[in-house]
Structures are given as C-alpha cells and as structure tokens.
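Lab notebook: predicted structure, single chain.

Context: the supervisor wants predicted structures on file for every construct in the current expression panel, including those that have not yet been purified. This is the next one on the list. No modifications to the sequence; it matches the entry in the shared construct table.
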Amino acid sequence: MTTPTTGCCVWMTGLSGAGKSTIAQVLVERLTAAGRIVTLLDGDVVRTHLSKGLGFSKADRDANVLRIAFVASEIVRHGGVVIVAAVSPYESTRNQARTMVGPESFLLVHVATPLAVCERRDVKGLYARARRGELSGLTGIDDPYEPPVHPDVVLDTANATPDGSADAIWRVLVSRGVATPTSVS
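Prediction complete. Output recorded below exactly as produced.
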C-alpha cells in the first residue's frame, strides 16, 4: 500500500498539562513510521523561537496562534502533516487558524482533561505558582479557556493512555486519507 500524500493539520488544544505534547509525540512517531513527513509545532518550543518576545495578553496569545497557523498552512499546502500542540485558548482564534489552514485539512482535537487533573500533573509548576499569586494570566486559573464548540475529536486524558488517545486521532486520520489503516501500531 502506498503512503498517502494528503496534507493535514492536527491541532490539539487544551489546558497546560492536559497531555497535548505527549499525545503529539506518539502521533509523530506513528506517522513517521508510516512513511509520512511530520512537523511538530509544540507551543513551548514555538514561544521560544517563532514567538519570542510575545507575552500572554489576549493580543499576544492570538498573535502566537496565528503565527503557528501560518506555518501549519504552509506545511499542509505542500502535502505535509503538522501536529500542533498549543493551549490556543480562544475559540475565535482557533477558527481563524482553521480558515488559514483550510477546513478540509484541519483536525481540531480538544484534549479536554479536567483542570484538577492538569493541576495534579503540573509538570512546569505553573498552577502552583498561579495559586500562590506568583503568576498571573494562567489559562484556566485567571485567564479563560474557551472549549471548542465543534471539535473533531474530544479526549479526556484522565481516563485514557497516550496510545489510546493517539488511536482515536489515528482513526480520523485514516478516514480522511492521511494515514492507512494498516499503519497503526
């Protein structure tokens, strides 16, 4: 069976600590093993390089998401697969990203892990700092997170493994012709 060449953007949104980056890494490995060229745009890495200097105001968050969307749209336009793992907290900006990439090539995944679970994980210590008043503007604490109105996939990583979550996304990628049924691990 030949490797599909359809471009696609898998955009994962959710709170910090929801599991976006972990699931993204599983998908990257699976898609790469299946012969796809894959680019991972992780929110933390993008902020270090592409969006360096942006803060966390609504305008800066929107600018960050739209920069990611521009890069993703170019990758998709050239037939590549891009996995985006970014909080991307605002519905209107995610909708702009969908339009930029192209609705037919955009797969919105809501990693809908409850705040309490994200706080328990708190790998970066952000929630603890926000609760102590040392950090302001944290999405889910004192800055809003707008859950997607019409996500293509909803995952609750409190009740699923990264592999199980990746399986749910993989099934949609197969149905869209981005991956082949036999290439799932």
